[in-house]
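Agenda item 2: iron/sulfur cluster complex prediction
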Amino acid sequence: MQLRLKNHPYRYECENLCRLFFPYSPVQVVDALSPGPEEPWAEALVDGRLYTARVSDGERVVEKSEEHPGLEEYAMTNLLYSAFTKLTGQSPAWGMLTGIHPVKLLRQYVDALGEEGGAEKFRTHCHVTAPRTRLAMRTLQAQRPTTSALEENDWSLYISIPFCPTRCAYCSFISQDVKHAKKLMEPYFALLLEELRKTAQVTKALGLRLISVYVGGGTPTTFSTEQLSQLCSAVHELFDLSHCPEFTVEAGRPDTITREKLLALKAGGVTRISINPQTLSDQVLQNIGRLHTAQDVLDAFALAQEIGFDDINCDLIVGLPGDSLEGFEKTLEGVLSLGASNVTVHSLALKRAARIEAEGGVTLHQKQQETAAMMDYSIRRLSEEGYLPYYLYRQTRMAGNLENTGWAKPGSICRYNIYTMDECCSVVACGAGGVTKLKDPYSDRLERIFNFKYPTEYISRHGEILQRKDGVTQLYEQFRQRLH
Ligand code: SF4
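Presented output:
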């Protein structure tokens, strides 16, 4: 769709609102409108005190205008949002929020106005529906004990393993399938250990206290049993884990899980794993390019329980190709009967959906209401079963404009997920695609250091990766200097 802006700097925010209402129509910012006959378009204009939003679906035009004394982002975006809702008749679940951290915003409102006032502002100012306001508030409340226990030198370690047995059809992550990346895995592993060594030196010298370890991917269990043992030993040898009750490894896909690997993780001090079905329908698994069956998930889960893992997360996705409300209900009930301590319910991101469609898969998201019904079902059933929503984030262009929510039984919250989503605690990342996020303990400042995205660059330019770790020292020194 075409978007015309005039006399204000809120391009990014206006583009996001266009995507919210017309997710399938790429936004093109133009100086003068010249859309085709059935193309949607929008204008967001400021003329002195007069703000005007004009939107069209290619047939009807809706115009709204208001006067404001000065330039104000909310005035422009709110006007555009209200023109879009009038045009389309839609009231998105998260209102005009297009950012990925709604709970962080709610926290700011609650800190300023108290729980009731903060929730009211979240609902009315941002147009968030009452059920989503409740979900965000419950999430905020569940996070409190974890966030308020944080101390100024606390940090988390993230280790990225960007390899998977095959690539899922909906994947938008950098992960590489083993067939194509096998020869990279050995050198990657060796260099990863080197980066961990450097990270240990830097964080020790700064006197930081490690409070959680998360090995994610990709699928970390793509590595061999020996490599997994070696990785766990390296974490224990290099870091002081005496304040770290949480060591998670995403076992992820059941087609990588073996008794030997689970035993190696258990012996390596791993406290929490993920086994991610996404769905328990064989047909849907096939649609998304997974090589395993639902039974493989059940078998892997039983094996993990037999070996002694009692903290197991299961990821599910609503909106998968070929899935239905009934199918999703069966999946969720199946996961509940396994007794997973954590269930994370994701919404399929539209860019991933687009790829499946492009490859001739089942058409997605024509049934947005059904996707929303799946999500509502998960909220109701997980609440009934005593799970708490404890972290929540959104991506741009998600199915039904919904959210991803992590649910946990009381006492089995994964702190790392809160730290990384809420950006309330430093996370130092190792491995390709890793993003170190350093939280200034004395202000709201957050600094990022990026690793190279792909394993090939990570290997060929590893010297630079190690140098970038010195940035952790420099930034912490700045945080501390500013305090004095
Ligand atoms: S398991 Fe996850 S990271 Fe790996 S290919 Fe599938 S979606 Fe991507």
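Discussion summary: The domain at 146-473 is CATH 3.80.30.20 (pyruvate-formate lyase- activating enzyme).
Owner for follow-up: CH.
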